[in-house]
Amino acid sequence: MLTSTLSQFNLRTAINSGSNTRAMVPDLFRGLGAKRVVLFSDRGLEKAEIVEKVAQIFNLTSQGVGPELVGMYLDIPQDAESLKVNDAVKYFREVGGDALLAVGGGSVLDTVKGIKYALHKNLTDIREAIPGGFLYESFPQATHIPIPHISIPTTAGTGSEVSPIAVIYNEELKMKTNIINPFIASDIAILDPDLTVTLPPSITAFTGFDALTHAIEALASPTATALTDAYALHAIRVIERNLTTAVEDGQNITARMEMLQASLMGITAFSFALNAIPVHNFAHAYGGLFRIPHGLANAVFLPVVMENIPMLYLPKVKELAQALSVGNPSDEADTLLSKVVEKIKTLQYKVGLPSDFSAYPITSEDFEKTVAAVSSDPAALNFPMPAELIRSIGEKVVPLVVNR
User: Fold this and answer.
1) Nearest to 126 by CA among 184, 56, 74, 187
2) Tell me: the pLDDT tens digits for 73-113?
3) Is 290 or 80 the better-scoring residue by pLDDT?
4) Left (φ > 0), alpha (ψ -120 to 50) or beta: where does 371 sit?
5) Can you tell me whether residue 125 is helix, strand or coil?
6) What span, in angstroms and rounded, lies between the C-alpha atoms of 98 and 119?
7) Where residue 402 falls among pLDDT bands split at 50, 70, 90?
8) Which of 62, 126, 319, 323 lies most in the core, judged by the most C-beta atoms within 10 Å?
9) pLDDT digits (tens, 9 = 90+) for 104-149
10) Which residue, among 189, 51, 48, 168, has the nearest Cα to 107 in the 3D structure?
11) What are phi and psi of 153, to 5 degrees?
């Protein structure tokens, strides 16, 4: 752990947690000076009536007192995509919006962060901001963005409502590109477990594994600090205790609330310990090539990467094992890591997640593209892996690839 070199930790988002906290949204926007709010979400959440549950709150505010909901943009796909960001920016300008309300999972929340950045920089094409696939802006180069912005996550996984990172898919490059800027995070996050109870078990499972991956990669990071470890370790404890319950009993408000907070803690640790993230490296590359949902890709890769790159996880394996309730203090580090990986595989199985990508039609020709994709992903900058290792890990999650 680095103790004397520069580190940064900046959780600038105000957080309101609890059942029905969505009712606070108009008043919170008023406090931020918003007058014309645009809601962003997706068609799945519209169908699930989540969008309406949030939108109708604006009808309860007295005319002329609260901010007005002037439009809804609901065409956001599974991944935050550059072209959709551009289209949504155009819509926001057309309806005369002055505030952003994001309701959804990571793709919606990241899309809105891309919209916010494009509006701030007066862009019509977000790809202009990230031509090389990675944009990192820190204070004081990064400046406050005076656009009122509230996020309501409907999944417990990405924690994107508080993170300074937006992952946006570039359709031309077939690459997940990154904007990192402390001011693109929401001004306020609303963690309302009532809006997550209808989330299907499979999505609950793989978004939960996304949060777990954030926490474990933060803990293993060479640039972790006591601050990030505190968030990472407690996120792991909370996920270990609540993920199975949230998957098996989606109506359990306590488990849903705990998972939302664990998700927030996991991404906070991840964002400010950001360095070696091989699991995310693989997940970004395979997600970009084969459109595998990000949380599912992380879930499949997590135990495999840990088995194949043990030196990254061994330094803090005792703390990790304790957080996951496995092993004994007297166990050797190698033994503890084996028990940790086994616990993760068991959890993967208990929540109904696959251990490979056999459900995806990945051909041998497709597989040959993965080494270059993993190597060229922005996540590879801090932790480059040799081609042999990338191929070896890939072969473990793409079964019988040589026979396809």
Assistant:
1) 184
2) 999 988 788 999 999 999 999 999 999 999 999 999 999 99
3) 290
4) alpha
5) coil
6) 10
7) very low
8) 126
9) 999 999 999 999 999 999 999 999 998 878 899 888 888 999 999 9
10) 168
11) -70, 140
Residue labelled with tokens 């077939």: 174
Phi, psi torsion values for 381, nearest 5 degrees: -60, -45
Average pLDDT over residues 39-67: 88
What's the CA gap between 235 and 386, in Å, rounded? 31
Torsion over CA: 94, 97, 98, 103 (sign)? negative
What is the Cα–Cα distance from 256 to 127, expressed in whole angstroms? 35
Strand (E) or helix (H) holding 99: strand 99-104
Please say if the pLDDT value at position 388 is more than 80. Answer: yes
Give the C-alpha separation, 113 to 147, whole Å: 11
Residue 14 pLDDT greater than 60, yes or no: yes
What is the per-residue pLDDT for 403?
47
Give me the phi and psi of 77, to 5 degrees please. Answer: -85, -175
Q: Phi, psi at residue 132, to the nearest 5°?
A: -95, 0
pLDDT band at residue 404, thresholds of 50, 70 and 90?
very low
- Specify which residues 16 forms β-bridges with: 190
Q: How many CB atoms lie within 10 A of CB 109?
A: 30
- What is the 3-state secondary structure of 68-82? EEEEEECCCCCCCEH
Q: Tell which residue, 141, 118, 138, 120, has the closest CA to residue 128.
A: 118
Longest Cα–Cα distance of the chain, Å, equals: 66
Return all residues near 217 (Cβ < 8 A) that are at least 6 apart: 270, 273, 276, 277, 278, 279, 280
For residue 328, how many other CB atoms are within 10 A of its CB? 9
What residues does 180 pair with on adjacent strands? 136, 165
SS3 14: strand
